[in-house]
Amino acid sequence: MPHLTTPPGTACPAATESGRLGLGSPGYAHPLLAPVEWAELTRPGTPLHWAVLNVTDGPGQRPDPHCTEATGKLAGAGGTVLGHLAMRDGARSFGELVSDAHRYVDWYRVGGFYLDRVPADRSELAAVRRVVDALRTLGDGLHLVLGHGTHPYPGYLEIADQLVTFSGGWADYRWSQVAEWTSEHPPERFCHFVHGVPRNRLEEALRVARWQGAGTIWFTDRPAGADPWAGMPAYWDEIVSRIGPGVSE
To answer: Which PANTHER family match (predicted)?
Structure first.
């Protein structure tokens, strides 16, 4: 099982409190389309580690007042907003990614970045490190999450605060195996995103996450499709109550 200590300078404070399991929203729909969902993230007692803002597959071409309002409220409630950067398995250039990141910081005052579809091979590590190093210069204490969706080469953990080591459906997740090297690190370094989790399997899914050493999760009953993460699960209140701050693990 993972150790329960955290290396200095890794993971945001909300994600490290007592190693508690918490939520990371991979990217709700635009706040104009999902106002209730964004409002729920600010509800007191919600065990939120962070939420990803994705305006139009990135920050968009100009500041969006609806996004400014939603992210301002979340930050005001103590939440962390991460700007979505689409790496597209390494297909986007360094300049494009850094330009997007600058707009997120300037327009929405994000607290970090979620890099989507990050390469997982050792051969791509140097290129990803270059991007991450540039992002670190944009502000103090920025939280960086690499969205591999699978277990990458272990060296990626050295450059990020958290890695998404599973992103997929419940049918695969319930039988998934954790990479052996992850046991050398605390749970708050790893995230799991799982769609299609039935309500009657929610407790089982939480057990899998804890057993595999994930500290940040997003479970939803929404099926695979255009974007299973765009809305909240039907059992939102239940999952909040199961892993909220009043729950002993």
So the answer is: 4-LIKE CELL SURFACE PROTEIN, PUTATIVE (AFU_ORTHOLOGUE AFUA_4G14080)-RELATED, PTHR35040
